[in-house]
Structure formats: C-alpha cells, structure tokens
Amino acid sequence: AAEDGLSAWLRYAPIPHAKHYHDKLPSAVVTLNATEGLPVYTAGEELVDGINGIFGKELSVGDDCERDSVVTVGTVAAYAKNGGCVDELPDLIEDGYHLRIDGGNVLILGQNERGALYGAFQYLARLAQGQVTDDTLTSNPEVPVRWVNQWDNMRDGGTHGSVERGYGGDSIFFWDGVVREDLTRAGQYARLLASIGLNAVVVNNVNANETILTPSNMDGLARIADAFRPYGIQLGLSLRFDSPQLLGDLDTFDPLDDDVVAWWQEKTDELYRRIPDMAGYLVKANSEGQPGPLTYNRTLAEGANLFAHALEPHGGIIMFRAFVYDHRSLDQDADWKADRANAAVDFFEGLDPDFEDNVVIQIKYGPIDFQVREPVSPLFAHLRETGSAVELQITQEYLGQQAHLVYLAPMWRELLDFDLRADGEDSTLASIVSGQRFNQKLAGYAGVVNVGHNTTWLGSHLAMSNLYAYGQLAWDSSSDPVEMLEAWTKMTFSHDQEVIDVITKLSMESWPAYEDYTGNLGVQTLTDILLGHYGPNPGSQDGNPWGQWTRADADSIGMDRTVWNGTGFAGQYPDEVYEKYENIETTPDNLLLWFHHVPYTHVLKSNKTVIQHFYDAHYRGSAVAQTFVPLWESIRGKVDEERYEHVLYRLVYQAGHSLVWRDSVTNFYLNKSGIPDEAGRVGNY
Ligand code: GCU
C-alpha cells in the first residue's frame, strides 16, 4: 500500500470489467524517434504499463504505425517526417498535444516531446476512469509557466534536508547539505507532475542558501535534472541575492557592480553547461530580512534584470517574487495606516516598463500570506508590460498542514474568477495570469507544493487532490473543482459511486468548514503566527512584528484599509473594485474585516452581528468537521485498509482539533468583547 501512496493518481489499478474492453484497445505501441531518457520514450513505457495495469492487456512494442490496432506516440515533426497519415496536422503551441482515439487505433502527437507525454497521460487518465470511447481532441496549455516550487533546505541547522512548511517528511532532493545519492523519488515526483501538465520544479527553498552554487552541488543539481528529464520536467533554482559575497570573494552584491554581474554570468554559464535545459531562476529579495537590490538603493527591476541578463543567452526565465516587504518598518500601535498589505504595490509601482522580457513577477494570490480568505492581490492589475504568475500554496501552511482536510480548488476557482476590472474591462485573475488580458507572452502559475520523503508525499492521501487540481487549473483555468475531484478519486481510490460521493462531499465542504472554525469575515486564519502557523491563537494576531494584524480591542475589530480613513490599501485596486471595497455597504461579508474596522455589534448583510457570526460560524464549521468521520466510515471496505485507516486517523484528529479551534476562538472573543453568545454556548461547559 505504500506503493498506492507513491503512485497517487497514477496507480493504473484494474477497473471493473477490464477484460470486456480488450478488443477496443490497441495491441501495440509505436513510438516515433524515441530516445531512452526523453519523454516520447517514457510515453511508450507508460502506455505499456498503464494498459497492462488497468486492463491486464499486454501491448507489444512495434515500429509500424500503419498496422491496425496501434497506439502511435511522437512529436508532430517526427510524425510528418515518417509520412504520417493525418490529413491536416493539428495546430499546437508549445507543450500542446493532439489525441485521436478510434477504437484500438490511437494517435498521440505532441508539439514537442513533452506534449506527446502529456497526451499519453491524458489517454491513460481516460482509460483509468473507464472512458474507452472514441474522441478527437487538441489541447494546448493556457500558459507557458506551470511551475512547482519546493521549499527544500539543503541543510537546516542540523544535518539533514528539511522542507520549510513541508508536512510530508524530509527533502527528496537534499541531505546533509548536498544532493542525495538516490534520486528515485525525484523521478517519481516528476512523473506525477508531468501527468498533470506541469513543466518545471524549483528544487530549493526561496529562502535560499548560497552553497547550492558550489561546483559539487551544481553537479548534484545536474543529477536531479537527469532524473526529471524523462518526464519533460525542467529544473529551476532559487538564488540567494548576496551569494557573490557569501560564496564568491566579492565585497559587494550590488546588482550594478561589474564584478557582481560577471560573477552571476559565470555561475549561470556553469549551470547551463551542466543542465542545458534548465528552466531558470526564482528570486526572493528584500523580503523578511533577505538581502536584495534595495540594500544598495537599486530598484527591484535592476535586481531582477541582473538575472534576466545572465539567463537570456540560455533561454532561461527569472521568476521574481513580489512578496517584498520590510516587517521592521511596521509599527501597529504608533501608526493606524501601517499595513503590510500595501507593500507589493508600493514596492513595484512604476517599475513595470523596466523589467526585461524574460522576467515574470510571481505574486501570492493575496496581499498578505496564503490566508483562508484574502482578496486577490491588486498588483495583478498594475503589471501591464511584465507578465505575472499567481503563486498558490498546495502545502497547507495556514490551512491545517495536511492534518486537516481542506480541498483548495474551490478557493482557487473563486480567486481565478475574480474580476479586477482593470481599465473598467473584464479582467479576471485567470485572464491576467494567462497573459491574455494584457498581451503578455510569459505568464502563468507557481504552486508551492513541498512534498517530502513520506510515502504519501504530502503527509495525507486526501491532500493530493490539491496537487492534482493545481496542475489541471494551470493547464486549463476553467477546470471545475467537482469534476477534477471525481476524476482524481476514480484514479486514486475507486470507481465505486459511494466512494466518489463521499470524497466529493467531504472535500467540497472542507474549505468552508475550515474557514468557519478558524478565521471568519476576512479577519485572517487566526493561527498562531509566531509558532509554526498551526492551531488557534487569535491573540497572536496583534502586536506581532509581521504585520499580520486584526486590530481587535474590547469594542471593535478589523483592519481599516479604506482610503478615506484607513491604510489606503483599497485604493490600490482599479476604480470599480476600489469603490466596492471602500464602501462598507458593498464589501461582501466574507471580506468585511479585511477592509473595515467595525464594532463587534456591527450588523452584517446576513442580519447577524459580527460577534454572533463568529460564534455561529465556529459552531457550524466544527459541527461539519464531526460529520467527516462517519461519512468516511460509511465506505469502510471500499478502499484498501491501509489508506482507509490513514485517512480515518486524520479525520478523527481534524474533528477533535476543530473543537479546540471553536472553543479557543469563541472564548477569546467572548473575553475580549464581553458580549455573550445568544445561544448560550460559548463559555458554558
Ligand atoms: C511565509 C512562510 C515562510 C516563507 C514566506 C515566503 O511567510 O511562512 O516560510 O518563507 O512565506 O513565501 O517567502
């Protein structure tokens, strides 16, 4: 069963009535111009393994695509060269594929090798879901940047490689300051990611260590890239801005200094000598005490361009993070207008035209930090010439750290559909990060995943639906949360309708429930923000040095982010959105306390007071979490015992912990406000 965890949705488990389909399936696989170690070759292997696993049918490996009952896979170019018999070659963009299923005759063509592999995985996903029907489709990715970020440390205080905000064990890449000898897991990870259309992994923490660039570690990185390559996954690297000083013997890391420029060029050249297909860099600068260009009074654009120039000759790109803020400049008590949420737009304002073409600004979905509910970051509406990528977090840092089930696709759906109304026109987040709204070539998605050595990858079997959904959304932002869940469940667990229904119900209720029993009305998640971002601690949400505040006192709560009386954050949005949030009447309840500071007795659109809403929501959400346990128990025997028990253990824990959440938060605000719960529950045990 450890195998089940490792192969996640790629188990290729037998489906019901498998034999029945044999004559509708190919009998042989033909790969065009396949080279071992490259994606088309891998596609051939996957097709053989998949069809054998799902149907118990063994394909022969042939070389004659004219024969009957053959699945042919290759690039469009290789197919055309072989005199392939498609009348019209499909219109594909980079990484796109064409899939034609005609009984046992199947044609899978990629614009490149990676696209061919994606097409093979798509065909296999259909088969694994029991869809053995004819079809012709052409699928192109919506965006070129479909990256994963791993926050893996090479060395963390002690000796081993931990993962920052990782809840699935140690790093699969690093150990004791160097790249692991055994990179089997890196290859298995790449396989999972390729199957959902992702194309690059940044392997080390955004809080990077300069030693990643020693010659022996660069050799190690080349081995990781080798493990990724059969799956078309490219390697990306996080860099530490002051590396020239820490690792080189320069006395500066000024991005405009000639020696610094030469140092980065040399390192970049050395990397590309080892990894010619490297994707590029990710840089966190001038954030949370990290060094950056501002240290030398250079602009963020000058900092980003330093790497852009070094990468340009190699075709690499730089993902430059917008998560820039100086927590030391924030003083809650002295300054009503102090607001960390303002930082990104403040820091990037005016720089848009200055970034080189191979720079992408990587922006967390919300202006603070992966909270259970945040408005979409206004910075997305400010970058017109420079492409942006939305940073989503699959690892559930503030969202229960995989000990709680929280299916995130519904939240991502809302964010992607949110219309920023730039220049008064339709401007959904999805249309901006696809590059379509502002006509940008480079744009897309970055997902912080943080898998670890654990055989479940993320520490929880159910949490893997988030990774699956992330890949699907990055490929096609219109993907539906329920459909993705059903497909994932079929492939991961079972085709049994009850299993599908139970997992769908649990998952779809999980984000609203979590929001209910943690932080309501946009107040933030209310986790302990000083110790690990886990568990309830509303008291830690004020007076902390990180600028994640609620401004709760005896009478009132919320951050006043209006222009007329508050921090001015609402003014960073395009007019229509600004007006909506500036005005308390038009601010939706679920973001009320994000934008406004109100008495606990303020009446919501729901006609409840803020404080009563807190009480009711906490009771409601934790009650929903109690139902997860019997729901799961109702499918005992329908999923294998080991995974059944593992999930049950987590859900029992979640049910209990949701009560801890409920009681901590409701009691905290009862004590603060002195306003009793109308239903008499809070404080009465
Ligand atoms: C959060 C997170 C950190 C991380 C940072 C970032 O603050 O807690 O661990 O380094 O975000 O995204 O850079």
From TrEMBL:
What is stated as this protein's family in its record? Answer: Belongs to the glycosyl hydrolase 67 family.
Identify the EC number(s). Answer: 3.2.1.139
Q: What does this protein do?
A: Alpha-glucuronidase involved in the hydrolysis of xylan, a major structural heterogeneous polysaccharide found in plant biomass representing the second most abundant polysaccharide in the biosphere, after cellulose. Releases 4-O-methylglucuronic acid from xylan.
Q: Which reaction does it catalyse?
A: an alpha-D-glucuronoside + H2O = D-glucuronate + an alcohol
Relative to the complete UniProt sequence, the shown stretch is 14 to 698 of 842
One Gene Ontology term of the biological-process aspect is: xylan catabolic process
- Residue span, Glycosyl hydrolase family 67 catalytic domain: 128-457
Q: Where is the active site?
A: E288, D369, E397
Q: Provide the protein name.
A: Alpha-glucuronidase
Give all residue intervals belonging to the Alpha glucuronidase N-terminal domain: 8-123
Keyword vocabulary terms for this entry: Carbohydrate metabolism, Glycosidase, Hydrolase, Polysaccharide degradation, Signal, Xylan degradation
Where in this chain does the record put each Glycosyl hydrolase family 67 C-terminal domain?
A: 459-681
- Any keyword Kinase? no
